[in-house]
Amino acid sequence: MQKRKVGIITFSDGRDFVHEETLEMNKKFEDRLVKALENTGEVEVVRASDIVNKPSKAKKAGKEMMKAEVEMTIFNYSIWCWPHLSVMASLYAPGPYLTYGQINPKYPGMVGLLAAAGALEQMGIFPERVWGEPEDPTVLEKLLKFIRAASAAHRLKGERYGMFGGRPMGMYTASANGDQWMKEFGIDVEQVDQYALVLKAENIPSQKKKKAREWLEKLATVKYDGNRLTPEILEKQIGLYYAALEIIKEEELDFVGFKGQPEMTNNYATLDIAEAFLNDPYDFDGSKEPIVAATETDMDGALTMEIFKHIAQTPVLFADVRHYFKEENLLDLANSGQHATYFAGKSNRPEENLKNVIIHPEDFYFPAGGGAVKHFAAPGRVTLARLARQDGNYVMTIVPAEFVELSEEEKKRLSEQVQIEWPHAYAKLDTDMDTFLEYYPCNHTHGVYGNYIDELVHFCKIKGIDYQILD
């Protein structure tokens, strides 16, 4: 994954004699911050060429950050600094901004931080504030959480969402306003007819589809039934995957959604293989970057997933909120093969995940046939979330949870009650079901392994979006 490019501007006292006396000290404090960030392996640091003590240097430093195309800027304070320098740098340096105060009581970095942050806020700029030693893991994690959120907001700008087909099955929550996306997130929406997938799929070389099918047969269990799932139908599904890749490249799309039902599922083949492997960190030809793909052209679902992807830099779950097993206190998250196979083993290695995957014949909902990508999500703490609109305004609902491991007998018993051929993630929510059902905004949910609540909250604050945490 691409490192997050972070700019650092360190500020000083405007009096020449104070600046000169503290210059080496300031540089050492900056060195410590840079080293701590770079040692994480997540961050590429761009430093201003000068410690800023004059308006001309503030403007120069800001322009250097702009030229370097940093994704956010840290304003660094280890001594008393003249606040107007930070304001002037902010005219050029890309936001969002984090004001960072280092511990230096004799030369008051805290005073510099507060004075600069207050000045910025009077200008309508509301930076995140962090204070402490950069080597302190707690402080470093605070920095990283904001950096992840800021880079996610930055990376959405200029992206293109490919919408294959229109609104699915009357779902208002799956459709969004392209103008609003451009205004609020900087995302362009491109409409593509699903027939374009069929045309391209038919022209994918047969040998290429066969090779991919044999790779899948080797690593996963493929349950051909001679009716809804045959080698020929599986190769049609693989063709749809390669067709999607070609269109994504031609149209310069960054993330996508497929309508699927009912046109494709009634008349050609399901898109489960395409959706799963687009979201995976590998495909039939090797390692790759995951491409967020939402089923049922769920625009706000795809957007939630893209935010998660940029924050966590892992594959992202798409699922129906399918059923609550009251006795087990488990929420069954399942959706027609949409789960990336990554969730079957929580690994970037296909052989580790696909040994737990069954390509299962689709059921009666999908007469054209195809294979569902069946598996059970590996256990672990997860963060679930959904971006949705309430009276036209976006609100993010965040749900901390745990994917739990069940016995083979329990998996069989529970999945048979719901949809035995689909993938399942059995989630134990931190909140109770009454609260969840009252406040959760739609029928789809999305998530990643790990705790990313703070990053999502930072993202919402950066974008001016309301949020609620169900815990």
Q: Would you write up a description of this structure?
A:
The longest helix has 23 residues. The protein has 16 helices and 21 strands. The model has no long low-confidence stretch (mean pLDDT 96). The protein folds into two domains: 153 residues, Rossmann fold (3-Layer(aba) Sandwich), CATH 3.40.50; 310 residues, Alpha-Beta Barrel (L-fucose Isomerase, Chain A, domain 3). Helix 3 crosses helix 4 and helix 5 crosses helix 12. A six-stranded antiparallel beta barrel has the order 13-14-19-18-17-20, surrounded by four helices. It has a five-stranded parallel beta sheet with strand order 2-1-3-4-5, with helices on both faces. The protein is an alpha/beta fold and 471 residues long. 41% of the residues lie in helices and 23% in strands. This is Fucose isomerase. GO terms for molecular function: arabinose isomerase activity; L-fucose isomerase activity; manganese ion binding. Pfam families: Fucose_iso_C (PF02952), Fucose_iso_N1 (PF07881), Fucose_iso_N2 (PF07882).
Tell me the number of structural domains.
2
Measured by DSSP, the beta-strand proportion falls in 15-25%
Query: How many DSSP helices?
Result: 16
Could you tell me the radius of gyration in angstroms? Answer: 25 Å
Q: Please name the CATH architecture of the largest domain.
A: Alpha-Beta Barrel
User: What is the oligomer described by this structure?
Assistant: single chain
End-to-end distance:
30 Å
Structural class: alpha/beta
Q: Which of globular, elongated, flat, extended, rod-shaped describes the shape?
A: elongated
Average pLDDT figure: 96
